[in-house]
Amino acid sequence: MSGADQVRFVGKIYGIDKDYWIVSGRLDDEVESGLDSNVESRGVGVNELVYWVTDNLLNDWVQLPDAHPKHIICAK
């Protein structure tokens, strides 16, 4: 969670094989890599917050990717 600001615990998902802890926050630097023109920028709309997940609190946290329109359509 390097560069994260205003991090807060979101919750825990109980899985069959592993449990997952989720936190959300904002990134200080707004570096974005090759986003489509129809994807909302980080810090705006559905990409307002960045999410991280881990299955072990002693391991590294993995940053989840920004949401794309196809993700939202699939979730509906």
Describe the structure.
The protein is mainly β. The chain has one domain (4-75). Helix content is 9%, strand content 36%. It has one helix and four strands. The longest helix has 7 residues, at 69-75. The protein is globular, with a radius of gyration of 14 Å. The mean pLDDT is 85.
Summarize the structure.
With 76 residues, the protein is mostly beta strands.
Number of strands: 4
Structural class: mainly beta
Q: For the largest beta sheet, what order do the strands appear in spatially?
A: 1-2-3-4
SSE order:
EEEEH
Shape: globular
- What's the helix count? 1
For the biggest sheet, the summary is:
4 strands, antiparallel
Q: Mean of residue pLDDT? A: 85
Tag the structure with descriptive keywords.
single chain, 76 residues, 4-stranded antiparallel sheet, 1 helix
Outline the fold blueprint.
Blueprint: E1 4-14, E2 19-27, E3 50-54, E4 62-63, H1 69-75
Antiparallel strand pairs: 1-2, 2-3, 3-4
